[in-house]
Structure formats: C-alpha cells, structure tokens
Design goal:
By secondary structure, this protein is of the alpha/beta class. Helix content is 23%, strand content 29%.
C-alpha cells in the first residue's frame, strides 16, 4: 500500500515557550546540528514514505529555511516530496485567529484539501517533537496484518505522577487491541504504555474522521475520536522498544540534550543500520582547537573555534569560545560567542548570542539559565 505522511509542527509550542517564541516546535535546534523535525522526517523517509505534508500555524519562517526543497531528506520531488501546509486564514478571518497552537484535530481540519488531493491509501500522522528512531515500515506492516482501523505507537515507560500528567496512557488487551485511554491522568505512577503521538490509518478513514469532527465541533483527537470509537473501530497498539524522548519543558529539553553525551544513547538514536538521521547540510570547516584549549565529554559540531574550556556540553555549529572562557554542563547554539574569561554552567544559549568578557551565568539542571536568540549579555 502507498503511504503519505502528515507532521504537526505547532501542536506543542506552548510546552517550551522560551524556544518557540520565534520558531515552531518542529525547528527547535537539538543535538549540535539537528532540528526536532529531522527525526520525524528521517523516520518517514527511511520507511519509504516519500510524500510528506507539514501542517504549520505560525512562526514557520525558520522551518521553511530549514526544510528548503527537501533535498537533504531526498524529498525534492514533483510527485510527492515535502510540502508545508500553511494556516487556512482568509482576509475575513482576522478576528478568529487562534492565539494558541491548534490541536491535532483542528490542524487536520485546515489540511483537509491537501489530504483529499493525495492518492495514497494510508496516512502516518506524527508530532514533530518525537525524538526516536522508529521503523515505521514495521509499524505499517503491523497495521495491515492486524486489519486495524487505527494503529497507535506506544512505549512502555516507568512514570512519575508528574510525567503521567503530561502523557496519554494506552491500555491494551493481550492481542494489542486498545481497550482504554487515559488522557493526562493525575496521581498515576508506575510502568505504563504511553502514546508516542504516532499513528497509522487509512486516508479515507482520516477524511471521514475530520468531516465528523467538523460536524460535531470536536477538537481533541484523543478524547473526541479515539475514546469515542474504542468499541466501534479496531484500534491497535504497536509497541516500540527503542530510545524515545519527548520534550515538555525547558528543563526536559536540557535533560534530553544532556543524555546525548551518553554513547549508548547516541548509538540507540544515530547508530541504527540503514536508518540514518538526516538534516540540512551546512558546508563549514572543521572545528579548530587552539593551543591551551581543553574539551572533555562534550559534543561539538563543525565550524567552531575553541580557545577555552568546554566540559559536559553540547556546542552547535559556528560557536566561538574565547581564551579563558569556561563552558560547563551547557548548551550553546549556532554562531554564538563566549567572551574571554566568561563562565557558563547549566545554561542554554539560543542562536547568535554574545556573552561578553568575564560574564558569569549559572543555572541548575532543573532550571537552566536561558538566554534568548540574538541577545548580548
């Protein structure tokens, strides 16, 4: 069966407002050279999904620049390829524009025309901040083999009460058929299957769901579609066993990024044969380490100039760390400059930040010190 992909770029913008003030969640930088959407796009391309629509709402200039023609994901194609689906606003709808990111179901309503014009039989729907390397081809085969109407990707995870309140809990029988759904439950702990916000269904089934939701004023895919149809539709749970991270706050972004310093995590995410993670190529010279520099347990992208000390940190492309500067337990994004004698600890610096000489910034892993894009401190 032919398959098309739909990616939601703005659904979780409110989770990390610091990083999404000027960009979509999809284009949040991650892991030295990637964006969140790179993992979702790569999962689709590696599984043979060569037609992808990305639903946008606002602040998508950065996403447009990053995706370009889609050639870096081998999606620069007239037949299929990658398409950004802009919000469906008209000149007469100025006062009805939403001030918050739309839900998945509301986003799908605005993409109805795009979906109806596709010819593929199946659709893979995914959030953009699902950081994992999943074999969607296997999930699609599971969907077809079981004769499911909808297949949900799940991951067995040990949850605290705080974590459970941020997740959709999926409960299934011994045959993997979903029989209950808990939406952001309170006071729930222990090991449970959580939704990865990846699902497979027929394209016509999706159009029917959108039409029904529009007629009844439904807004939530989980509460208004999945829960209401647990018995009338065959909804299956596909269990994913690999590495998974989903960012729900700045502190979680910091924690997930720091996990990349673990070689086992990097191998689980980037070291899977025939499933590489693609991103936009930037031709930069190798990183240069000057005399007197010191780097320990860190990830550094290309194009940097390191003259100071970098420990337990993630450094993006084009960063300059000047002599005497110390960067510890921090994330420094693209083209930022750390002045001579400056000190950073548990900090997150957005793109194009300048830290002047001898400035000291320190946060905590539970509350990292964040410096917005283009700031001078």
């Amino acid at each position: 069966m032919s398959v098309t992909g739909i990616i939601f770029s703005n659904v979780h913008d409110s989770n990390i407002p610091e990083l999404t003030r000027l960009r979509t969640t999809a284009s949040v930088p991650y892991g030295c050279r990637y964006r969140f959407i790179d993992f979702t796009l790569s999962n689709m391309v590696n599984s043979g999904v060569t037609s992808v629509g990305i639903i946008t709402q606002e602040n998508y200039q950065s996403l447009t620049d990053h995706i370009g023609t889609g050639k870096d994901w081998d999606l620069a194609s007239r037949a299929g390829g990658v398409k950004l689906i802009p919000p469906n606003f008209t000149a007469f709808a100025q006062n009805s524009r939403q001030s918050t990111a739309p839900t998945r179901l509301e986003s799908l309503k605005s993409a109805t025309v795009y979906i109806s014009r596709r010819k593929e039989e199946l659709v893979v729907l995914s959030d953009c901040d699902v950081i994992c390397n999943v074999d969607l081809g296997d999930m699609i085969e599971f969907h077809k083999k079981t004769g499911a109407d909808i297949t949900l990707a799940t991951k067995k995870t040990v949850l605290s009460a705080e974590q459970a309140a941020k997740n959709i809990i999926i409960r299934s029988d011994k045959d993997a058929r979903v029989n209950d759904l808990l939406v952001y439950p309170k006071d729930l702990t222990g090991e449970h299957d959580i939704s990865l916000n990846i699902m497979v269904m027929g394209r016509q089934r999706l159009l029917d769901i959108i039409t029904d939701a529009s007629a009844h004023g439904y807004t939530s895919f989980n509460s208004d579609v999945i829960l209401r149809n647990l018995h009338s539709l065959k909804i299956m749970s596909y269990s994913y066993e690999g590495y998974f991270a989903c960012v729900g706050s700045l502190s979680e972004y910091f924690a997930c990024s720091m996990q990349l310093l673990d070689p086992d995590v990097r191998k689980a995410l980037f070291g899977i044969k025939n499933r590489p993670v693609y991103t936009k190529i930037r031709n930069s010279p190798p990183t240069r380490y000057t005399a007197g520099s010191f780097v320990s347990n860190s990830l550094l992208a290309d194009g940097c100039v390191i003259s100071g000390t970098v420990e337990n940190s993630i450094i993006f492309r084009g960063v300059t760390v000047r002599s005497g500067a110390v960067v510890r337990n921090s994330i420094v994004m693209q083209d930022s400059v750390i002045g001579a004698g400056a000190s950073l600890n548990c900090a997150v610096l957005d793109k194009n930040v300048v830290i002047k000489d001898n400035v000291v910034l320190s946060g905590h892993e539970s509350l990292p010190f964040y410096v917005p894009k283009n700031s001078i401190v």
